[in-house]
Amino acid sequence: MPRPEAVFDGTEGDVLIEIYECPDVPFSSYTLTQRLNPNLQTATPEYRTAFAHVNSVIDDHFVSGLIRGKRSKSADGVFFNKLKLTYKGERAAIQERNRRTEQEKVKQLLDVAALIRRDAEKK
Q1: What is the pLDDT of residue 102?
Q2: Angle subtended by helix axes 10-21 and 29-36, to nearest 10
């Protein structure tokens, strides 16, 4: 019996998809935080909170065997460098991207159906 696909929350899926779609970019916890939160200034408390969240997501992905990379230490604590997806991580990123795309397509179809109903009611 096949296992159900994993469903990731926003940041969990965003991390996988970002690394998958940019395979030649040398990602770290810092660069992922900046790419996923482009409007945050790096020296703000909001950025530190976002960094901690992204780092936690990366930890979880390491445990799940989805990401590999090098652990390093900085003034902010432990962070990850040279992040790459494992084969399992690539599959998860593709599945997550497809799941998100399907949800968008369903929403578009429902919007079209609602427009058709409104047009039919006007007649």
Answers
A1: 85
A2: 110
Rg of the chain over Cα atoms, rounded to whole angstroms, equals 19
**What is the tens place of the pLDDT at every residue in 98-111?**
988 887 788 888 88
- Spell 70-101 as b/e; 16+ CB within 10 A means b: eeeeeeeeebbeebebeeebbbbbebbeeeee
Distances (CA, A) of 20 to 1, 7, 17, 83, 86: 28, 16, 5, 11, 10
Run of H or E including 59: helix 45-64
Tell me if the pTM is above 0.90: no
Spelled out in words, what is the top-level CATH class assigned to the domain 10-96?
A: mainly alpha
